[in-house]
Amino acid sequence: MSGPVTILIDGVEVSARPGQTILDAADEAGIYIPRLCHLPGLAPFGSCRVCTVTANGRPCASCTTPVTPGMIVENDTERLREMRRQIVEMLFSEGNHFCMFCEKSGNCELQAMAYRLGIPASRYPGIWPVRDVDSTHPDILIDRNRCILCGRCVRASRDVDGKQVFGFVGRGHGKRIAVLGDARLRDSGVDVTDAAIDVCPVGAILRKGTAFRVPIGQRRFDKEPIGADIEARKEKP
Amino acid sequence: MSARPGERQKPKIATVSLAGCFGCHMSILDIDERILDLAKVVEFSRSPINDLKKFDGRCAVGIVEGGCANEENVEVLREFRRKCDILVSLGDCATMGGIPALRNSIPLSECLETAYLDGPTVVNPLGRIPSDEEIPLLLDKVYPCHEIVKIDLFLPGCPPSAEAIFSALTGILGKSRPDLPYELLKYD
Questions:
Q1: CA gyration radius for chain A?
Q2: Nearest CB to A105: which of B146, B185, B187?
């Protein structure tokens, strides 16, 4: 491997290691690229497309695209912000998202992304799909109404827990998270301590009996927007 | 209260609750004593706050709580659009359907059968589902207001906080674009 390469993100010089993704390099430099399916520690997946940037003028998912020397990246432009808004609004319209009684509200990455992007309401008509809930497990439940198919649980169960409890089945609107193909959570061997339970960005996979412990006003995204922790890494000039 | 001759007419505000729970109207009242400041610069037209049932003139601002669940909701919403310059969707029911929209993934006939015939607590000796021209027909789904008419401003929240409502209203009346700060844009 050769030495570090330099890329430009919105005109700012960022040093990156060869082979590093644009998103990881930006994270280290304290530049936040919005994302939903990506989570450090899990293999990049490139499914939500919220992290789309342009690299040398071409749109690409920054979580799966490696840097190249002198790459010119656009991230925080109105065109990309608008595209991200559209993606997030489509995610809201595609599922059944009832923030007002969801126990993930305030700690939900989808909701926080909508707040950060300044979305007051989805412009797209709701699809109101029929999705099912599996609450057969004593400690865990899966509510597919809220699932955004980010695949974090699939990757965490496979790569971190070594279990492959969760997987995708179906295509298009019929695509859903399945438990061991077509089992119930109770029979799946999933454990409440599994990493796959923690990684869900929305309220689709939840621990039972833990809801509403943190009062409104003190939840993860009540005061600080999503990505503020990454932006705090930026070196002060 | 109409303006005396020579006095400049105050802009009017109309409010209504469609398929909502009046929680957003409670939140309007939650602006507390600032409602007196508001009353200095505006006048309420049709609104549950003054119990006026009909519009008494063109309104600068119309505030709509709740989405559209039946044909009456649609009619009232269209009248608001016709008679108000700026129409505000107030709360999650108005902006996305909210709790009433929980029925949207269930066929309407199934909802009615459960409510009036098969539900575990139903007592209905005649075994009839209410149907009368006095009762507004239910729509197939509950719709957010912007799927029926054009909406100019969205204030989500269940309910939107009094801060959000007051800052939006002062923004509109001050003719500025009332963009909510981060802490006030909430869906819960």
A1: 19
A2: B187
